[in-house]
Amino acid sequence: MKDEIIFVKLLELTLKLWWVVLIFAIIGSLVAYTVSTAFMTPMYKSTAKVYVSGSERQEGTNLNINDVNLSTRLVSTYIEILCGNEFLTEVAKDYNRKYKNDANPLSASAIKSNITMNSANETEILEIEYKADSAKKANRVLSILLDNAQGEITRVMNGCKVSIVDNATIPLNPFSPNIRQNTFIGLLLGIVLGVAVILMRELFDTRIKDDDDIKNRYKLPVLGIIPNIDTD
Predict the structure, then answer these.
(1) Residue pLDDT, tens place only, 130-182
(2) Could you count the other beta carbons within 10 Å of the beta carbon of residue 114?
(3) Within a 10 A sphere around the Cβ of 106, how many other Cβ atoms?
(4) Which residues contact 97 (CB under 8 A, 6 or more apart)?
(5) DSSP H or E segment with residue 5
(6) Got the DSSP string for 56-96?
(7) Backbone CA torsion sign across 72, 77, 83, 87
(8) In 157-210, which ranges are continuous DSSP H helix?
(9) Is residue 54 a contact partner of residue 72, using CB atoms and an 8 Å limit?
(10) Are 160 and 55 in contact (CB under 8 A)?
(11) What is the DSSP string of 17-35?
């Protein structure tokens, strides 16, 4: 019961000083929006899909369940091969050779930190994503990787192959930062901070404002209250 009374008092206090919460909410939103738009580098994501095949089938031969199961299991192997340092180094060299005007030369470690490969719903389709600070760079790097993928797979696993299902896309909009989401988070943090300021102000306010404060502080009963008489 006592906790409920305290909660009600704090709620009343917060509603009374709603403008404080509003100010902090606006400030939080503006700070989050400014940081997202002015200080965070936009990142773009290019995606592609390739079909993983365990071996070359002769023309006219039907695809059986064993071929599908083998290809599905090979996806993880292909991921390890295509994420290898030697292969990514060759991809970086090809990119730097082809795009000499790029102010930031590419490295194998940079590719590895920005690439993601996964099996699409546990099938023999391999989904590849590459993130970069420009839409063109994301598309170019992933396109070069796809161009070199077949040669690397054949070099390591003779007879295996990859077939491009979807070529590298050119992203139209950055996927990060999420300005709307960050602004909303800033709004919520501002509200929380505003409420916290009100509560801290109340906790450190030692003034006696009503008879309940006297009861709580001195543990004595209130015998009477002198009313505030308006003399106007």
Answers:
(1) 999 999 999 999 999 999 998 998 888 887 788 899 999 999 999 999 999 99
(2) 18
(3) 22
(4) none
(5) helix 2-16
(6) PPPTTPPP-HHHHHHHHHHHHHHHHHHT-HHHHHHHHHHHH
(7) negative
(8) 179-203
(9) no
(10) yes
(11) THHHHHHHHHHHHHHHHHI
173-199 confidence digits (pLDDT tens)? 999 999 999 999 999 999 999 999 988
Report pLDDT digits (tens) over 108-134. 999 999 999 998 887 888 999 999 999
What is the amino acid identity at position 92?
A
Residue length of the chain: 232
The dihedral of CA 139, 140, 141, 147: what is its sign? Answer: positive
Q: Residue 39: is its pLDDT beyond 70? A: yes
DSSP code, position 232:
-
- Read off the amino acid at residue 167: N
Task: Tell how far CA 53 is from the center of its chain.
Answer: 33
Q: Is the dihedral of CA 190, 196, 200, 201 positive or negative?
A: positive
Q: Considering the chain, what percentage of its residues have pLDDT values greater than 90?
A: 53
136, two tokens: 């063109």
The answer to whether 65 and 135 are in contact (CB under 8 A) is no
